[in-house]
Every structure is written in C-alpha cells, then in structure tokens.
Protein 1
Amino acid sequence: MKAQSLQFKRNASDALHDENLKLAMSFAKTGFIGKRAAAVAAVPQWQTIRDEARELKNHVLDNLDHYLLAYEEAVIRNGGTVHWAQDGEEAAKIIVDLCTQANAKTVAKGKSMVGEEASINEALEEAGIEPIETDLGEYIIQLAKEPPSHIIAPAVHKTKEQVSELFHEHHQQYGRQEKITDRAALVHEARVILREKFRHADVGITGANFLVAETGQHVLVTNEGNGDLSSILPRTQIVIAGIEKVVPNLNDASCLLRMLARSATGQHFSNYTSVMGGPKKAEDTDGPDAFHVVLVDNHRTDMLAGDLKEMLRCFRCGACMNHCPVYGAVGGHAYGWVYPGPMGSVLTPVMVGIEKAPDLPHACTLNGRCAEVCPMSIPLPSLLRRHRQTTFEKQLQSAHSRYGLKVWAFFAKRPIVYRTLTGLSVRFLKLIGGRRGYLKRLPLAGGWTKGRNLPVPQHAQTFMALYRKQQS
Ligand code: SF4
C-alpha cells in the first residue's frame, strides 16, 4: 500500500474531530478488551504458553535460513513453487505475472497484511485484473476505497450506518435497490454477492498465519471461511507471507494458535483454522491445479540483524492496538500506512524509512499496556524508545523538542539542581493555577493545552518528595 500522509500529528488532529470515528472506535474498544481478558483468564497456564511461544519464535529467528529452506523444499515436494521477493514491489510483480500466466480476469483475495505492504490490489488493477476482497471488513473498505484501519478488523472505523450507505450505493448493480440497515441483513447481502465472485474467480490469493517447515503446509485462520473458499475454488492458488511466519512443525503452530484468537478477538479458536498445502492431488475432490507461495522480506532481514529483532515475533493479533489509548482515540488511518498502533509505530519506520515517519515512535504515552498484553512478549515501548533515539540522532524531531531534551538532559545529570528546579516549578505552577486548579495555556506545553486544560499539582511538592514522605 502506498503510504498515505505520514503526518501523524495532523492526521490525529483531524481524527479527533471525526464524530463517526469516535462512535465506531468506542464500540470496538470495549468489545475487544473485555473478550480478550475473559479468554485469557480462562487459561491458567497462559504465562507458561506465552514463555514457550517466545522461546519458540526466538529459536526460529536464530535459525531462520534453515527453516525457510526446509519449508521451500517441502513445498516443492508437495508440487508447489516458492518465489522470493526482496520487497513489496517485487512481490506484487511476481503475483501479477502469475495471474497473467493464469489468464486471470478476477482474483478472490483473502485478508493479508503483507499483501497490503505489497499494494497487490493496485498492481492487479493496473494490469487489468479485478481483485475482489472477500473478507467482509476488507470488502467494505474496498468499496469505500480506503485502506484498512486495524490489522484484524479493517473496517472497525466504520459505523453500521456508513456500511449501509456503501452497500446501497454499490449493490444496486446487482439488483438490490432496497436500503437495509439491519446488521445481519447487511452481512447476508455481502455473502450472497461474494459467493458468486468466488465461483468465477480465476486465482485465489490469501495470506498465511504460519508456514510449517516440516510439511510445507500453511495454517490459515479466518472467522468467515473466505480464506478456504479463496484457496480451494480458483484454479490457481497464491499464498503471500512474510519470511518470519515460518515455524518448525504443526505442534509449534498449535502452541501459537492457542494464543492467537484469544489475544485477537477473545475467541478460544477462530471459526476456521485450516491447514493446507500444495495443488490438488489425484485423490482430492477439490483444490487448485497450481500452487505458489510468495515469501516477502521487505526489511525483515534488516530487523533480524538489528536491535528490533524481537519485533519479528509478532503474529499480528492486534491486541496491542486494542489496548493502546492513542490508537483508541485516533483510529488506524492517522498512522498513515499499513500497520497502525504500537506494532505499526515500530514496523512502519523500518519498512518505509524513519525519515518518512519520524512522528510515529512519539505517538505513544509509554504506558506499557501493549507490552503487557502482547502474547509474544514483545517489549514495544523499549523498541519505540530505540526509534526515538534514532529520530533524535538523525535530528528528525522539531528543533524545540531537540533543544528541550538537551536542556532536560543537562539538568537531569545534576540531581541537586534538578530537584531544586522541579521543586520551584511545582510551587510556581500551583501558584499560577490558583483556585481554578488548572491552566489554560502554558509556554512549551502548547500541544497539551491546545486541546485540554493542564491540571496543576495539588500539593506544593514534587511527586518524589511526596512519595518519600509517605514511605517514611
Ligand atoms: S506486537 Fe504483540 S500484541 Fe501487537 S500485533 Fe504483534 S503479537 Fe499482537
């Protein structure tokens, strides 16, 4: 996907004034968080599974070349072909070539975030091939000509009324004149229209949640079964996946599966968890004639070799963004590219270049909830701090932030002066805050006071002074 505006601050400011977005996000936040908490609480050995999963992925990342080659060998053994893509552009070219060779007019697509990285839809359209998104959320945003705003719920920013408008506008060509607003009826209408599209698609493209090195199969998880239909019905099947998706065997995949749906949607298991691989065999009743896998690097090996390696443990559950107060307030589009929320603020600067996305590592309060809920124990705030350091070193932040930090560092290295100054500042703030207890404007805190009042300290002492007093 081509980067939208990566001006996070401007996008976020616009998003905060979008009433429909506020409404849609309020429904989304409450649902995801509560369901995940209940699902995790129901598994007493959660932390043990989490530790096992972290060790498993660390082992795979330390031996990634071995497992990728083993996977390729197994896919070939099964009758398939593996293609290696250095970046998204190369992946899109490979896929367009495969579709052209298959004389494809239409392509049924399952949801794939790495497919978004590669802008597959745009590349197919340019080649005169019609891509049809078959995941309901992706279908909605395809009609709206918008990028996804969440990695597992791409249309989470849309209200039911907006979806109703979209369907009414686009479904009249299928003889559906009546405008419907009932949720179940909307789903039914999309299902009927998509079913026909599946039947006529020449190629099916899906992502993969895991690639199994031992067997050459891939595991695909969906809640709608669209991934299975996209894989089985068309004559040619293409799977696109990042190189970090490989796991040694099916047992390892099942360890990760125990956490995936629980962390993502709070389900014990997704509705459809399918294990597939290779073209149709003589004894099979269905399946594709040709099977291809496109493995995409797109800066993953840079991460592997650098200090963001832990990010490659991510299996795209979305829990970090569901628990992020910044994402919850501004939604996914404000982040400007494929991946939003905390994981996006780590990935995007690597994949598009930190010079193009210097605001993202700062779109975070460092409250740490993302790391707490991340099933793969990825220390997201620490990774964001590493990016922040890079933005500071490359002088990508505004001049006043850089000089502000330098001044702060000067005093922080001199604790007695620091304590004296912070003590005086607290007293001063309390004094000018007066009876009101807050300030409407404060120099150097314009970003805060532009949208809200700044409460002044209730006591004329610093937090540390009060803490020490209470301890003693
Ligand atoms: S960083 Fe962790 S919580 Fe966020 S999507 Fe990846 S695995 Fe899930």
Protein 2
Amino acid sequence: MDVLGFYPMWYVPMVGSGIVIALIASFHVMASHTSVGAAVLLAYLATKAYRENQPQIYDYIKKYLLGLLVFSYVSGSITGPGIWFSATVVNPRGISALIHNFVWVWATEWVWFVVEVTFVYILYYTLGKIDRKSWTRLTWIFAVASWATMDVIVGILSFMLSPGHEKWFTTGSILDAFYNKNYFPHLLERTAFMFAIAGTVGLAIAALMKKDLPEKVYKEIVRTLSYWGIGGVVFGLMFFVWYMATLPERSYVVLDKVIPIYLKLPILIIIPIVLAHFVFAAVRPQAVRFWMAYPLYALIFFMGVYPEEKVREGIRKPYVAGEFVWVNQIIARDVPAKGIQSQVPIIDQKGLLTLNPFVPEGLKKINPQNEIMAGKTIAILECSGCHNVTGSVGLRPFGQKFAGMTDRNVVYSFLTSYLRNNHPPYMPKLTGTDEEVRALSAYIAYLISNGGSVSAKIEVPNTSSEAKKEVQP
Ligand code: HEC
C-alpha cells in the first residue's frame, strides 16, 4: 500500500499551533536582537573608551554585559531551541525540508553561537583584568560572532518565504537557497532595527547609572546610543522599503487582504515613537528616565517585534518553506534538483486519508458511519494550520467562515469552485479525492448545524470488525 511520509498531527484548538511558535519566536527575536545590537554597540563604546581614555565607560559596559548575560542569554538560549522544537512538532515536514537544504548552515550557526556565548562570559569576567587594548579586540570578536548568528538565520528565514528565483529548483544549490532575493534587504533591515532595540534598553541602563557616572561620560554614552538608535530607525526604514520590493507576488495579496490592521498599525505607530525617544535623548540626555526607556523597550516587543513576526509568517502563506511545502505539509510542486515530486496528483487520486499513515484504520475508507469523522480528520490535516476547524472563535474559525452553510451540497459546491479549482493565493489547493471533499463538506455542514462548534476529538466509529478506537487530538 502507498503511504506518504507524514508525521502525527498536532492540533491546537482555537488559537492554532502556529501561535505557539510565534510566541516563543517573538521572545527569542527580542532577546537575540537586543544582544546582537548590543554586542556591536558595546564594541564601539569599548573602542571609544580605549581611544579617548575614558575608563568610566567600562563601568557602563560591564552593567550592560551583565544584563545581557542574565536576560538575553538565558532567555535567548531557552527560546532558540524552543522555536525549533515547537516548529518540529507543528510542522515536521517543513523543518525536514529546511534541514535537507541547510544542515551545514545550521552547523555554522552553532559554531558562531558557541563563540558568541563563550565571549559574553569571557568579556564580563576579564574586564579590568587584562589590558584594555586586548579586551577591546575581544569585544569586536564578540560583535562579529553575534552578528554572524543572525546573518546565518536570516538566510534560512528568507528562503522560507521564497527561494526568490526559479534557479534553485533546478540547481538545488545551497548558495542559491541562502542568497535568495529577499536575503540582503532582510538582513540589513534587521541589522538596522536591532540598534534601535539595543539602544532603547541601553538608555534604560544609562538612566539607572546616571548618579554613578560623571556627567560628561553619561552624556556621551546617551548621545552615542541615541545616534546609533536614530541611524538604526532611519536605515531600518530604508531597508524596509527595499525588503518590500523583494517580496513574492502573493505576499502583497496577503498583506493587503489577509493581515489584519491590528498587526500592521502598531508597527507603524511604535517606529516614530522610538525615533522620537532617541531624538529627545540626544537633545536632552539628562532628561532620559528609566521609567520611560524601559516600558518603551517592552512596547517594542508588543507593538513591533510580535506583530512583525506574525506578519512575516503571514506573508509566507500558503507555503511554509521554499515555495514547495504548504503549511499543511503537502509537497506542492516538483523540485527536480532534490528529486522531490509534487504530492498533489497522488493525493487527488488516492486520497489523503489512505496515504497518511497516522490516520486510524477505521477512517481510511469513507462510509456513511464514519463520514463526518473522516471529514473532520481532513479538516484537521489540511486546514488547521491556518484555521480553527472545530469552533467559532480564535484563528479564522470555520464556524464563522462557513456561517449559514448547513447544507452539505452547498458546502461542496463552494469548496470545489473556490478551493479546488481556483484557490486564492493565500490558501493551498484543496487536495484529495472527490469522496474526501464530500466528507469534508459533510463535516462542515454538520459543524455549522451544531452551532459552529464541536469537540476536537477524532472518534473512530464502531465498525463490524474493529473495536472502538479513540485518538486524542
Ligand atoms: C496556509 C494557510 C491556510 C490553509 C492551510 C487554509 N486556509 Fe482558508 N484561509 C486562509 C486565509 C489567510 C484566509 C483569509 C481570510 C482570513 O484571514 O480570515 C482564509 C479564508 C478561508 C475562507 C473564507 C473565504 C476567504 O477567502 O476569505 C474559507 C471558507 C476557508 N479559508 C476555508 C479553508 C479550508 C476548507 C481549508 C482546508 C482545506 C483551508 N481554508 C486551509 C488560510 C488558509
């Protein structure tokens, strides 16, 4: 019997499994961008302290380093593997596609990361114990290693959006995958904005140390951070425009039609606020306050980083990796270079329920007794990456999207005309046999007839030969 290499499905009712990754990832981005930005800023400050012989600047650097050690490196190292762990559970085939391309890139990432983490300790514990010139050199190794960790990941992230050119599908080359069209603007945009993030928390730390530092030194630190912050925002916006110009066609549709205003608007509001704060700090360093800078740093998370990560994941739809794996993990097109073939034809011919080895035996052949459950299974397998398929609230809930459609024939003709023959650019094509589409229609009509909400459980109806089996979602 034919099977396709699917994995067990993790269905998170209501909010969807993607949100689990998005939350962990956003914390990670916040911690990592703070530390990468800070690594460069601190190397610059250390150089300044050395050249201009201003030893008090080292006190500030030491405090910032301790903050990084305690906050960024602990939370960054927990959430980093957390992203890959959750992503592996949510979308094993997407991760598998990435590993098959980028295994050595990840190995490189790991080497840079080891250097980075080692150096934050080395720098903190050798400050004042070795000569300043050598120490300053070490800060630049730290800065380069930190930035390189981001550089490497950005190549993978932008490939997830799109290889950017047809070439990769035939060459399969790792360099074509890594240096995709979106890579440079994405990297430069993050590089610029991270100075704004690190600068904002840097101002909070400076404000805390105002009393301990000579006025002149304090002002210089604040001005330096502010100039870097202003530069970060201004260049970040410029690179953002370039970034937008490198998106694939479908992403504009998603941005325009799908991404809600409550994700776009906060980003547009927080950027000028951060910029204004830097300008204010540059003009009146003495007026910088911890209670302003630190909450602003937190706001950057809620209004900038979290929505930005959600939008970035959104504009990738309907794919999860390289424009050949859909969010529902079905391989959507041929990749000749990798010997990968589209699975759409075989699923249309033989059916997803038969081909997915984790579908319980009692649901593989559709009959009047198991039809509704088979339909629910298809909804979970094909649609739950982007929809709450068992309720009326939360993530694009089916209860709302199909409101009023209590007749299975109405659902069927809607699904075939809208999702099978002419699917919108943000959704995968509805794949499977005609019988499966009918089962999905029956389930959806049943869901709507039940008030738009049913249990997420998959129950395999009692068939003559088999005892009742239950599969927990
Ligand atoms: C890759 C993510 C993704 C998958 C998988 C997906 N959808 Fe959608 N779906 C969307 C998006 C995005 C929208 C746009 C509306 C919104 O954001 O609320 C949408 C909207 C819809 C709508 C409302 C019509 C419209 O275009 O706005 C229906 C009905 C729907 N989906 C059904 C399904 C069904 C049935 C499946 C499974 C066979 C499915 N979707 C799979 C992302 C997806």
